[in-house]
Design goal:
Elements: H1 2-7, H2 23-34, H3 41-47, H4 54-62, H5 67-79, H6 90-93, H7 98-118, H8 125-128, E1 132-134, H9 136-139, E2 154-156, H10 171-176, H11 186-197, H12 217-226, H13 228-241, H14 255-259, H15 269-272, E3 278-279, E4 282-283, H16 287-296, H17 298-313, H18 322-334, H19 339-347, H20 350-353, H21 370-381, E5 386-387, E6 390-391, H22 401-404, H23 421-439, H24 458-473, H25 479-496, H26 499-511, H27 514-517
Antiparallel strand pairs: 1-2, 3-4, 5-6
Helix pairs in contact: 2-4, 5-7, 11-13, 12-13, 17-18, 17-19, 18-19, 21-23, 23-26, 24-25, 25-26
């Protein structure tokens, strides 16, 4: 289904690619997964047919300044924080640009991830660090020491007496995962458990008392403490939930309520649930202590391994993967719990390039994320899909991210992986705009073998098209496909009389090709 739908958007029949460990395919996959862009022609040439040359490339590309953001993009479906459609009134927050404020808030946890990955910091920093990442727009309302006169994403520290617990102390996480009084932060505790420990309480089967009146608060409270069906979850969930009362908001749309931490509310658990802060049966002294307890939990490292494995392979881990995950966990531990050590272990393992193919749910071919798609289009053509300064692949309010592939879908459940008709339409329009933009740039670096405004000889055209097929699609040696593209160029030239128009049409075709979005 994935490839067939994309094929319907191309201009000719193209066979679905077969699983392979060809160095060109491997290099393409590594580049898209580690940097978000495609290899250059020089990088393809440097590796050639030598598979042993791939491993040094992994370390080089993890040192690339795009690696951290790519890892954050990889984890976005797990965190599910990039949501910019929410109730916010400009006059209440006195913001000049509420869209960018919300965009930044949703990206805050992921930017922390990006810095940890980029700077090779230990994974424990994620839940123990005393810093966050903030933009100048967020700093208008955030209580932080954001550098004066700075712009863009900068390292900063909260100044409202909140405990230092890394991502657990961020506005971005708790804006996304809010809580009602009745819920008493249980949803927040489950978000932490799902994201960091790979245990989602909502996935557990519950055989509850059907006669329990859920509107009777006293009866519900009694059931949570005495019913076996309830205690199974709440015995560990409620003590962790008790830690997050400092983030509880009495007034949901008050700027001070939502953007500031409230130390004076930390003991509200005594009034509303009677269950004190603890983690796995051991009392914890507030949020910072919870972060340290999570960092010591073996499940924390195991979950990081599982999440990274699943997101890189775009399939759920199964019991058959137990031995492999154990090896990756060992590499993670021996590497100082750094993202690079973990990612290196995954992308150099056989599963990464040759996953099982007998299970339709475990396809070896992956679909690019909206971030990857936008990054490779910009890298190839210089074009960024933006209107009024808004990156349309990075905002829900004005953009097309949802149409191009929902970042809220977790690949471990295989949801959000199948392309849709609207995704194909978005990519078609972007491909057309990017192609025209590319051929109009005096410093464009795609049409390099022939003059863009002259009719080439067939031999020169074929050489140029072979280079384009490799650069844009990671496709080498497919003479039939190149011949079809040359025939397309000739047809477009006959219709328009302009070599430049014909090259723009060819580029648009290649960026609508299945090989551009499935890798």
């Amino acid at each position: 289904m994935m490839v067939l739908l994309l094929l319907s958007c191309s201009d000719g029949p193209v066979e679905a690619p077969a699983p392979t460990v060809d160095p060109v395919v491997a290099l393409t996959r590594l580049s898209l997964d580690l940097r978000g862009v495609r290899p250059t022609l020089d990088e393809y040439a440097a590796v050639g047919d030598d598979r042993s040359a791939l491993e040094p490339v992994v370390d080089d590309w993890m040192a690339d300044p795009r690696f951290g953001l790519r890892y954050a993009d990889l984890m976005a479906p797990v965190y599910r924080t990039p949501v910019t459609e929410t109730d916010i009134e400009e006059f209440t927050y006195t913001l000049d640009d509420p869209t960018r404020f919300l965009e930044g808030m949703g990206a805050e946890p992921l930017r922390i991830l990006a810095r940890i990955a980029q700077e090779d910091l230990p994974w424990t920093e994620l839940v123990t660090g005393d810093w966050t990442m903030v933009t100048e727009v967020m700093a208008e309302s955030y209580p932080t020491d954001y550098p004066e006169s700075a712009t863009g994403w900068q390292l900063a520290h909260y100044t409202d007496d909140r405990p230092a617990a890394g991502v657990l102390s961020t506005n971005g996480l708790w804006w996304r995962y809010s809580s009602t009084l009745a819920n008493a932060n249980r949803g927040r505790a489950n978000a932490v458990s799902r994201i960091l420990l790979c245990r989602d309480y909502l996935d557990q089967q519950i055989e509850g008392d059907r006669d329990l009146n859920l509107l009777d608060e006293e009866a519900v409270a009694n059931a949570l403490a005495t019913s076996d069906a309830c205690v199974t979850c709440h015995a560990s969930l409620d003590p962790m939930a008790a830690v997050f009362w400092g983030f509880y908001n009495h007034f949901g749309f008050s700027p001070t309520e939502q953007t500031h931490y409230h130390p004076e509310r930390e003991r509200l658990w005594a009034e509303y649930t009677g269950v004190g802060p603890a983690y796995q049966g051991q009392p914890v002294d507030g949020l910072a202590d919870l972060g340290r307890a999570i960092a010591r939990d073996p499940r924390y490292a195991e979950c990081a391994v599982k999440r990274t494995f699943e997101q890189l392979l775009q399939r759920p881990a199964t019991l058959d993967d137990t031995a492999t995950l154990t090896e990756h966990r060992q590499a993670f531990l021996e590497g100082g719990l750094t993202v690079r050590a973990l990612v290196r272990a995954v992308v150099t393992s056989p599963d990464y390039l040759t996953p099982p193919t007998d299970d339709p749910a475990a396809s070896p071919w992956k679909l690019v994320t909206p971030w990857q798609y936008a990054a490779q289009v910009e890298d190839l053509t210089g074009f960024r899909f933006a209107v009024g300064g808004y990156d349309l692949f990075n905002t829900d309010t004005f953009g097309v991210r949802g149409l191009a592939g929902d970042v809220g879908a977790d690949f471990s459940s295989r949801s959000g992986v199948e392309p849709t008709a609207t995704m194909a339409l978005v990519m078609e329009r972007v491909a057309e705009a990017a192609a025209w933009y590319a051929v109009d740039q005096p410093d464009q670096n795609l049409i390099t073998e022939v003059p863009v405004d002259a009719v080439p000889s067939e031999a020169d055209a074929i050489a140029q098209l072979e280079a384009l097929h490799l650069r844009v699609l990671g496709q080498q040696g497919d003479t039939e496909d190149v011949a079809r593209t040359w025939a397309l160029w000739q047809q477009l030239h006959a219709l328009s009389g302009s070599p430049r128009d014909a090259w723009a049409g060819v580029l648009a075709y290649l960026m609508r090709h299945p090989g551009f979005v499935v890798y």
